[in-house]
Amino acid sequence: MPKSRTVTPKPRNSAKAVQPPRPTLAARADRYVLYQQAVQAPEAEVRFIHRAYRRVRGRAPSSLREDFCGTGYLSTAWAKSHRGRTAIGIDISTEPLDWGRANVLAVESLSVQARVQLVEADVRHADVPPVDVIGAFNYSYCCFKDRATLLGYFRAARAGLAKDGIFICDLFGGTEAIATQAEERKCKGFTYVWDQAEYNPITHESLNHIHFLFRDGSSLLEAFTYDWRLWSIPEVRELLLEAGFSATAVWWDPIDADDYRKSECEEQQATWLVYIVAAL
Known about the structure:
The chain is of the alpha/beta class. The protein has a domain at 40-173 and 231-279: 3-Layer(aba) Sandwich (Rossmann fold), CATH 3.40.50. 28% of the residues lie in helices and 32% in strands. The strands form 2 sheets. Strands 3-2-1-4-5-12-10-11 form an 8-stranded mixed sheet. Helix 3 (42-57) crosses helix 4. It is globular.
C-alpha cells in the first residue's frame, strides 16, 4: 500500500483580487495647471501691455519684467507673442519657478526659451537689466501691507525701468471685495472657488484662499492662500507719484464692454477691476 500523505487543498479562485482604490481627481490634479485654467489670461495681458505702452510712448514695447511671476506664464506668453520680445520673470519662491521652467518654458521653442529668464529673487532687490515695462499682476504686490514697504517696492520698480519705461499693476475692489464670502465658478473638469475668508476693516487686511472642487467629491482646499492688504486706487497712485513716477492713469474694466478704458470717474460697483499705469 502506498504511504498516506496530507494534501493541502489550494484555495479556489472564486473572486477577483481586490484592486486598490483609484486616486481621486484631486489627488491626480496639478494645482498650477488648475490655476492657469481658472485664473490666468496671459494673451489678454500681453495685448493690454502693448496697448498701454503705445498709448504712453507711441511705439511698441520689446522687454517685459514680470514681478511676482510665479510659474512665468505671462513672461513666456510675452516672448511667444513676437520674436523680438524678451522677458524676465522674478519670484521669491523656488517651487513655482521650477514648475514653470519644466512645464511652461521647456515646452516652447528654443527661440522662446532663449528670450525668457526666470529669476529667484526679492523683486525689491533683483539685479536684472532695465526693461520697457514692469508688471505686477494678480494683485501680488498687496502682500506689502504697510506704506513704507510698498513705497520701497515702487521705488525699486522705477529704478528697474528703461528711461522711457512704464509700470503696470492691477487692483480689485468694490462692495463685495470686503465681504467674507466664497464665490464659485465652473471650469472644464472642476469648480474654482475664490474664498474671502477674513477681512479686517481697521487695517484692510484680507485673507483669501483658492479651492478646487471635483465631480467625484474630492477637493484641493487652500490650494493657494493670499494674505494681503486691500489697497485703494488713490493710495496706490499717490505712492507711485511719491516713488518718482511723473504720472499715473487708471484703466477701468467696464462690465458691459470688451476692454479696459481710461477713466477718472466711475460709479461704485459690487466688484471692479482696474489697471494702474505709471510713467516715468
